[in-house]
C-alpha cells in the first residue's frame, strides 16, 4: 500500500490519511437506508454518506489512531482507498469531521 | 453515537459509484425520520397576512400544552430530527415559546423560527445571538412599507425592520429575511438584497402558495410568467447566496436546476405538525386529504411518520401523468402538489405555474370555485378588526383586490414557509460525479 499523500483532485483538498480524525462535536449523524445523513449545527449544513461502508468508516474514526486504520477496520480494500480518501477529504473540507487533537 | 457497523463488503467503492438510485430518488422513498419539520406552535397571531398558509389568527383551545410540546421534542430527539422550523401563527406570542426553544436546543433539536418580529426586543435579540443552535427568520413581503403592509398589515414593515435592526445590533450574523415572492414585490429583489446586506442577514425567497388564506389571493398575487422568468434568472445568478427552501423547483423547467434537491419532500423528508398536533404532509397542505395523523395518538409522532398510509403512498413512485411526456418533467417533477390541489388541478398534472404554460391551460379548463378549500380556518372573525382592502398596489387594476368581500377582515399571521430542510445540503460526499455544490433549502 502506498503511503504517499494522494494528489489533490480537482476541487478536493489533500487529506491526511495518517492523522487521527473524529466526527465534529457539533455534528449529528443519523444512519439511513442508503448510508447516513449528517447535520452540522454550527455551519447549519446538511451532508450525507452515500454508502453503509462510508458510514462504517466515519463511525470508526474516533476509535482509531488514523483515518487509514479506520478504513482498514471498516474493511476497505487498498484498491478502494482512494475513493474513501476523497470522500473523507470532502467531509473534512466541510468540517463534518475534524482532527482528534483539535476537537 | 451507535457502535460502528461491521466490515463493509469488498465491493464498497463500486457500490458507492454505482448506487442503485440517485440520491434524490432515495429521498423520495422516504427517510427514517424527517431531516427537519415545520412545527406551527400556535394559530394565534398579531397580524393577519392575506396569504397566511395556515389561516391563522385565533389561538385554538386544543393547542398542544407545554408538557405535550416537550414530549414531542423528546420524540424528535430520539428520532434524530436535526432541527425544527417553528412557525405559526406568530410563535413568539406563546408565553412558553422561549422555554420550548431552550428545551429543544438542550435536547439536540436545532431551532429555526419564523417571526414577524413583534417580540424581538434588544434583550431577546442578544439572547438569540448567543445561541449556536437557534436561527431566526423575519418575514418581510415588501422592500417598502407600501408593498409589505398591503399584504402583512399596517405597521408590519416597521415592526419587522425594528426586529432586524435589533438582531443586527446584537451581532446575530446571518439571520434570515424571508420573503414570499408576489406580483407586487417581484420587482424589488435587488432592494431586498440591499436590506439583507446592510443588516448582515441572508435573503430567503419562497414561493407564494394557494394554501390557507393564500388560496383567496393567489390568483391576484402570484407572479406573472414574465416575473417568474426574471426571478429564475436572478436566482441562478446568485446561486447559493440566496436561500429558497427549495421552493422554486418548478422553475427548473427553464433549464439549469436551482441549488437544492429539487424535489417535493412532503411526507418523505419533511412534514408539518400543526398547533393541535395534527401531522400533515407539508406546511402548504393543511387539508384532510394530506392529514397523516396526530401526535397525541398512541405511538406519537414516530408512529405517524413511520406507519401513516398517506405517507406510505407518497413514498411510492409517483406517476407523472399528463406531464410524463414533457421534456421538462425530469427537472420540474410536475411541480408542487399543494399548488395543484388548491387550484383544483389534478395531482398528476402540471403545476399551475408550469414554466411551459401548461398550468395556465389546465387552470382554464377547471372550475376554480370547485377547488378544495383549505382546512382549519383560524382567521379572526370578520368585523373584529377590519382592515382596508389594498387596491392600489403596483400596477394592478383598481378593481383587483386581494380578498373577496367577506374575507377581507380576517386576521392572520404570517408564517414562514420554512419547510424544506435541505439547507446547506452538501451532496458532494462519497461519490464521483457529484458536483459538490451545496444544496440548500432554507
Task: Tell me briefly what this model is.
The complex is a heterodimer of chains A (103) and B (442). Chain A is of the alpha+beta class. Chain A is built from 3 helices and 5 strands.
Chart the SSEs and their pairings.
The complex is a heterodimer of chains A (103) and B (442).
Chain A: E1 21-23, E2 27-32, E3 35-40, E4 45-49, H1 52-60, H2 67-73, H3 81-93, E5 97-99
Antiparallel strand pairs in A: 1-5, 2-3, 3-4
Helix pairs in contact in A: 1-2
Chain B: H1 12-17, H2 23-28, E1 36-40, H3 66-79, E2 83-87, H4 97-106, E3 110-115, H5 122-129, E4 134-139, H6 145-152, H7 156-169, E5 176-181, H8 189-199, E6 202-207, H9 214-221, H10 225-238, E7 272-273, E8 278-280, E9 291-294, H11 300-307, H12 309-314, H13 329-332, H14 337-342, H15 358-365, E10 425-426
Helix pairs in contact in B: 5-7
Radius of gyration from the alpha-carbon trace of chain A, in angstroms: 13 Å
Report helical residue fraction of chain A.
25-40%
Please report the total strand number of chain A as a whole number: 5
**Binned strand content of chain A:** 15-25%
> Which radius of gyration of chain B do the C-alpha atoms yield?
21 Å
Mean pLDDT of chain A: 87
- Class based on secondary structure composition and strand pairing of chain A: alpha+beta
Give the N-to-C terminal Cα separation of chain A. Answer: 29 Å
